[in-house]
Sequence to fold (145 residues):
Amino acid sequence: MFNPSQEDVRRFFCQVHAKHGAGQPMDALETLAGQWLQEHPEYHAHVGDADAAVARTYDGSNGQENPFLHLSMHLSISEQCSIDQPRGIRQAVELLAARRNSLHDAHHEAMECLGQMLWESQRSGRAPDGQAYVECVQHRATADR
Fold:
């Protein structure tokens, strides 16, 4: 199983940004990452210099989120939806996207559910509960707002 380091992830997004800017060909994953990067122009300064990106600490102390974590979560949710794993996530995200009229906004809400599931897993010492994650996204898609 592929298990990239923090440095690998940061260099990947920096490389995607550079390739996109230069108009170079990209593979499928790079293309998807590039699409999410274009949705987040506020992160372009973070991905413009790979060495600075690797050296930087994102601990939330300055109120700034980690752009690499955020972009990685977009990729994770995209992949989950493409293979419908956990089962039902594709339909839940699609329903949420239709309800919000934005796949991007739906991803951001799904990220909150994904983060909650991972936090609960770490806190309890149990495996992540994919069903609870899907139910959280479904609830957001069907609850009145």
Notes: The chain has eight helices and no strands. The chain has a mean pLDDT of 94.
